[in-house]
Description:
By secondary structure, the chain is mainly beta. The chain has one helix at residues 2-20; strands at 23-35, 42-57, 60-73, 75-76, 81-82, 85-99, 102-113, 121-133, 136-146, 151-161. The strands form two sheets. The protein has an eight-stranded antiparallel β-barrel. Strands 4-5 form a two-stranded antiparallel sheet.
Amino acid sequence: MKKSLLGASILFMGFAAQAQSTGQFKAGVNVGLPVGDVKEMTTFSLGADLAYLWNVGTNFQVGPTVGFQNFFGKEDPNYHDKTSLSYVPVAASGQFSIAPEFFIGADLGYAFTTSGAEDAGGFYYLPKIGYQKPNWEVYTGYRGVSSDVKFSAINLGINFKF
């Protein structure tokens, strides 16, 4: 029920934003340093994101975002195995330009675990701050998933705007 409600909310936000003005497509990649529960079993994270943000006010954009994030596993001396953990976030994204070249933003939604772990997913969040130009932006943020296992990483990413 919670997943359905979240999905409907994200779609509604997207349609409401689309009705108000024009938007911009973004595609990007990111790399992260794991922290929290996954710090001991993973070395780094790597991911990709897609988003479409509509201008809904002066210097403010909102819209849906989806991606894929993988945490690359460390070799376990007890099992001689590397266990990678991955998830697909589906979220609403918001971004506010605090100056022409600087922004703050956040992604909030749900992340579905795709690595076959017992954990099915959880609340997804990504507060971020960045530097932007008309065709690209670079950001740093704290990407995380709250569930039985806390997936979290300090991220550095780049998005290209189309």
